[in-house]
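hey
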C-alpha cells in the first residue's frame, strides 16, 4: 500500500558528499511522499518512486518531476534499480513480480517466475555486468512470520538461484562492484527479533561473512563503486524491521571502521536502493521532516 505524508510533513531529496559531509537539497515536496533514489550511470539524473509510479529529475535540481513511462506494469513499490548502461530500469511491482522497462519507452517485460500467490519478489541489486538481478524472495505462511531469502535471477528471465535457505529474515540484497559478493542485512545472529546486522555472501552461496555487530539495527548495505565503502541505514536499538518516521543515521563502513554521515528523521524510503553516484563521492537519500523542521537532525 502506498504511504502518504503525515500532516505538516515533507519529503526532501538530498545529495551528500561522503568525503566532506557537504549536502545539498535537490527537491522538496509537501504533497507527495517519494522514496528510494537511484543515480543514473551518467551521473545526471536521480530516479525516485511515488504513488506507485517512477520519476526522474536532474541532480542539479528542479521544480518538476518527469514521469518515466512504465507501460502496463502494475503500481510499483520502492525497490527499483537501473542497468549499468542506463537503458533499462527494473522495478518491483505490487503484484509481487519484477519487470524490465526500457528507459526510452517501450513494452515492459516480466522477469520473474510464478511461484504461487504466497511468493513475492523484492528487487535490490543488479550485477556489474548487467546480467543478473539480486532479489529477496518472500514466502507468506499464513499467520506466521514470512520466510525471506536471497535469490539471483538472469535479467533475461530463467531459473532462480537461491543463495540463502533458512528462517532468518533477510533483506536488501545488493551486488558489490566485483560481482563476487552480494551484500544484505539479516537477523541470523539476532538474540531478539528485529535486530538486523549487515552481511555479505558470495554469488555462489558458498561463503557468508558478517560485517557489523553492534547494538543498533542496520539495514540496506550499499557498496561504493570502488568497493571500499558501504553506506547503510542504522536504526535505533530495539527497532523492529525498517519502519518509517524514526530518527536514523546514515553511516559509512570502511577499513577504518564506522562513521556517521548524517542524522535524520526518515527510515523506510530513505535509502532502500543503490544510491551512490558513479564517482563514489556522493550518495542520495530522502528525509521526512515534520512540522517545518529540516532533514538534518544534528
Amino acid at each position: 500500500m502506498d504511504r502518504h505524508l503525515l500532516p505538516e510533513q515533507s519529503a526532501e531529496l538530498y545529495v551528500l558528499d561522503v568525503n566532506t559531509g557537504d549536502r545539498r537539497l535537490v527537491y522538496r515536496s509537501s504533497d507527495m511522499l517519494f522514496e528510494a533514489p537511484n543515480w543514473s550511470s551518467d551521473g545526471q539524473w536521480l530516479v525516485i518512486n511515488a504513488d506507485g509510479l517512477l520519476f526522474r529529475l536532474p541532480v542539479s535540481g528542479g521544480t518538476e518531476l518527469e514521469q518515466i513511462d512504465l507501460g502496463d506494469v502494475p503500481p510499483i513499490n520502492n525497490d527499483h534499480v537501473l542497468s549499468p548502461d542506463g537503458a533499462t530500469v527494473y522495478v518491483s511491482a505490487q503484484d509481487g513480480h519484477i519487470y524490465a522497462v526500457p528507459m526510452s519507452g517501450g513494452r515492459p517485460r516480466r522477469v520473474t517466475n510464478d511461484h504461487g500467490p504466497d511468493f513475492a519478489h523484492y528487487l535490490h541489486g543488479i550485477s556489474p555486468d548487467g546480467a543478473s538481478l539480486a532479489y529477496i524472495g518472500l514466502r507468506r505462511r499464513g499467520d506466521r512470520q514470512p520466510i525471506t531469502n536471497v535469490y539471483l535471477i538472469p535479467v533475461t528471465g530463467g531459473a532462480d538461484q537461491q543463495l540463502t535457505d533458512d528462517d532468518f529474515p533477510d533483506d536488501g540484497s545488493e551486488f558489490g562492484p566485483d560481482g563476487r559478493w552480494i551484500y544484505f542485512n539479516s537477523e541470523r545472529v539476532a538474540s531478539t527479533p528485529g535486530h538486523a546486522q549487515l552481511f555479505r555472501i558470495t554469488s555462489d552461496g558458498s561463503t557468508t561473512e558478517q560485517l557489523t555487530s553492534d547494538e543498533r539495527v542496520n539495514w540496506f548495505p550499499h557498496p561504493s563503486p570502488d568497493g571500499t565503502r558501504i553506506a547503510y541505514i542504522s536504526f535505533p536499538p530495539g527497532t523492529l524491521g525498517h519502519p518509517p518516521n524514526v530518527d536514523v543515521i546514515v553511516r559509512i563502513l570502511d577499513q577504518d571502521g564506522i562513521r556517521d554521515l548524517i542524522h535524520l528523521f526518515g527510515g523506510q524510503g530513505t535509502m532502500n536502493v543503490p544510491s551512490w553516484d558513479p564517482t563514489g563521492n556522493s550518495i542520495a537519500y530522502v528525509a521526512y521532516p515534520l512540522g517545518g523542521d529540516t532533514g538534518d537532525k544534528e
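Residues 83 and 196 are 28 Å apart (CA to CA). The chain is about 0% helix and 50% strand.
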